[in-house]
Amino acid sequence: MDKEFSNIRIVDIAKMAGVSVGTVDRVIHNRGRVSEENKKKVQAILEMVHYQPNLMARSLASKKQYHFVAIIPSFAHGEYWEAISEGIDKAASEMESYNITVTKLFFDQYNNKAFDDTVRNLLDGKVDGVLIATLFADSVIRLSQELDNNEIPYVYVDSNIKGQHQLAYFGTESYDAGVIAARLLTDRLSSSSDILMARIIHSGKNDSNQGKNRREGFCHYLKEIGFGGKLHEVELKINDSVYNFIKLDELFEANPSIKGGIIFNSTCYILGNYLKARGMKSVKLVGYDLIERNTQLLSEGVITALVAQRPERQGYDGIKSLCNHLLFKQNPEKVNLMPIDILLKENLKYYLNNKL
Amino acid sequence: MDKEFSNIRIVDIAKMAGVSVGTVDRVIHNRGRVSEENKKKVQAILEMVHYQPNLMARSLASKKQYHFVAIIPSFAHGEYWEAISEGIDKAASEMESYNITVTKLFFDQYNNKAFDDTVRNLLDGKVDGVLIATLFADSVIRLSQELDNNEIPYVYVDSNIKGQHQLAYFGTESYDAGVIAARLLTDRLSSSSDILMARIIHSGKNDSNQGKNRREGFCHYLKEIGFGGKLHEVELKINDSVYNFIKLDELFEANPSIKGGIIFNSTCYILGNYLKARGMKSVKLVGYDLIERNTQLLSEGVITALVAQRPERQGYDGIKSLCNHLLFKQNPEKVNLMPIDILLKENLKYYLNNKL
DNA sequence: CTGAAAGCGCTTACAG
DNA sequence: CTGAAAGCGCTTACAG
């Protein structure tokens, strides 16, 4: 539409307004130093012709640099946060030619103080935008307020925090991710079976918000369909298979009616490895996230289904939205919910090479 | 890596080689009219410094226009092919600033001759690349050969054809999409249930390749798990509910053990509408594609699961790959298989606004 | 075959 | 407050 105005340039505007290109440029960018009169004239024409700047020319001519910071948990290869990091890198490399650089700041995901330390000197450097993994709500809120004061835009990933001024959130609706896991499990269970919910204990870390929300959604669905079985709980340790095996042996011996299992974070391989070792093929296990240790067990048939949340896209879209906001004045939706993907053994392979 | 060479410009190369920028430009683009000696010199330096052209400057300076043609079936709002069309449009609008235009050519998907007619005068205009929906294999092969002769690159979407020189294919592995449907259905069926496979008859159109492959995958999975039920078949008409209802009434009356249904193209709403009208809630129905009439029934619980194949991305990636090939000399993978998505009532809504 | 110059649409000092 | 000019990195005639 408006094809006729599609290649109006700044010089054209300048001529129509009877001013120089410098003046037009100043009003376009609100750089001031323009008389009220000229400003009005130029703005009127800008609107009339629906002026669309040529972005390539702009970025060619401009020496302006943008610097973004992404604050995310550190990770070992194959862990969940690696995926978010990859998405960030992809966006960064795509936007490189627009003079955008992205620095990643890592913190220990089990240590609230580490987050605060990482963040403390953030504003010493030049920062034009921030992406934040919202694991520690209180700390994130403090940081958000500081960014507000400095008028630096920021986006959240992983889980949302209400009441803040984030430019946007990219992540899933954890509650529904719990509902879906429940559906996947109960569809494959007779209604007299029991379900085991395992929690993974980690030094000094209580359940994440995300985990809690998934659990709520899960339990809600069971109630709604009138699931008749019992729910058992067990606490496992992330790095202590001996302990875990003993606990699980006891539990399954005492409750042979347990035919389903669920873990609300990305570590369902812990339970999976036990089931595999014991050859307990009749227990259906559902978990979260396409990390290597999980996908391996999914393809072997030990895990029945995985629920995934496109972490790569969270990182990618997060950085992209900062770019679009700053460079192109486009504002994203405030809440952007990723698809909740259902992975079975049969469709797994097409996801593995298609993460973005 | 090689940060030190990251902003080497043509003038730098020119100086290093002791020639003018014009000469450097000629060797970069193989425009000829350069002495063998200078060519060698320049090429050596180009390689040494890992020269990366500034794409924005290039496209700013260049008046070169690219014109792509996308040949796809015509569609009414809400039909399957609309999604592919949307993906094409999205790519086109993103690439507009690179002086790329995309024209869509539509043909009647039930009429082989219509395809040939549409395509006949394709080469009269200027065409730099073509995207083809491969419904009619023979016609597509003829067209492909003509494009080969004219050295015009082309990509396939929807289903692949082997033995041609397509730059790339974007679509799914239909056979596995059949396997997955079988898994989704049988997971929810007792092994003594029967399954109804409905075929949709359309004037003068036999089953698509895609439909056949899905069916093969479906049946193979049933065999592999030793499914004990019977398979029933019925032919329905796309626009004749009266006929369909009579046929289905007979069938279900005669075979009350039918507890599962499948249709191998995007029209499973036809069977869905029948089940809904008859209130037959115990029959599980699995189908394909996120078109409106299907998603409506999925959210109502009439359809149990939909298998989807990211048509928007097929269109989008197809056009993008032509751009990347021509503008940036990047060659795509020859076969690009989209994820096969599993949609249940519970995760549907997050897909509807996230098609790309 | 080769090079100097103009131009793509915008931004950035700079002089006034 | 305003405008003329140079420059971003590349391509495109044009003259030789």
UniProtKB/TrEMBL annotation, chains A, B:
<dbReference type="InterPro" id="IPR010982">
    <property type="entry name" value="Lambda_DNA-bd_dom_sf"/>
</dbReference>
<dbReference type="Pfam" id="PF13407">
    <property type="entry name" value="Peripla_BP_4"/>
</dbReference>
<keyword id="KW-0804">Transcription</keyword>
<feature type="domain" description="HTH lacI-type">
    <location>
        <begin position="8"/>
        <end position="62"/>
    </location>
</feature>
<dbReference type="InterPro" id="IPR000843">
    <property type="entry name" value="HTH_LacI"/>
</dbReference>
<dbReference type="Pfam" id="PF00356">
    <property type="entry name" value="LacI"/>
</dbReference>
<dbReference type="InterPro" id="IPR025997">
    <property type="entry name" value="SBP_2_dom"/>
</dbReference>
<keyword id="KW-0238">DNA-binding</keyword>
<protein>
    <submittedName>
        <fullName>Substrate-binding domain-containing protein</fullName>
    </submittedName>
</protein>
<dbReference type="GO" id="GO:0003700">
    <property type="term" value="F:DNA-binding transcription factor activity"/>
</dbReference>
<dbReference type="GO" id="GO:0000976">
    <property type="term" value="F:transcription cis-regulatory region binding"/>
</dbReference>
<dbReference type="InterPro" id="IPR028082">
    <property type="entry name" value="Peripla_BP_I"/>
</dbReference>
<keyword id="KW-0805">Transcription regulation</keyword>
